[in-house]
Amino acid sequence: MPARLRTGARLFLLSATALVIVGAIGQAVGWVLLTTTLGPTAYILLAHPHTEAAQVRSSVLGHTCATASGLLCLAAFGLWPYPSTVGQRTDSWHQIGAEALAVGLTLFLLVLLNAHHPPAAATALLITSGIARPGPPLYGMLTGLALLIAAAALLSHVRPSMKRAPGIRRRAKPGDRAEG
After folding, report:
1. Alpha-carbon gap, residue 31 to 25, rounded angstroms
2. pTM above 0.70, yes or no
């Protein structure tokens, strides 16, 4: 099987497994744990596990900075009681300001902490747009992220088996000695 196909199949299985685990736990406790920030986080953690962005430290600090930045900007712009941008079907100028500053502040903090994790910017946007409002939506998103980071830390070490099924031999290459 070509390397790209093996890698793609591995990532398909690992990401689906991790997200089903998170979703199942959410079902069991009655919370929505699967949010849009989990998709890019799963990709970084599983597809590039040896990069700085995929390290547990970067993931945790990234989403923590994004959460703090989002909540700070919600408060600073007086948006705590505002409905989400989805409910309004548009952003107010206050929301646009909060969203832009929360992402900017998140990126600033990630550089200062040397904890680069691009999906954290999505977390800041989810909070300031009101989609992951303080309360159950925010708690669910953060719980989902914690579970995904833990699952990915374990799953990223799963390597495809190089063992062949019984009765299947390696294709002979030119120069190989004949069996016999």
Report:
1. 8
2. yes
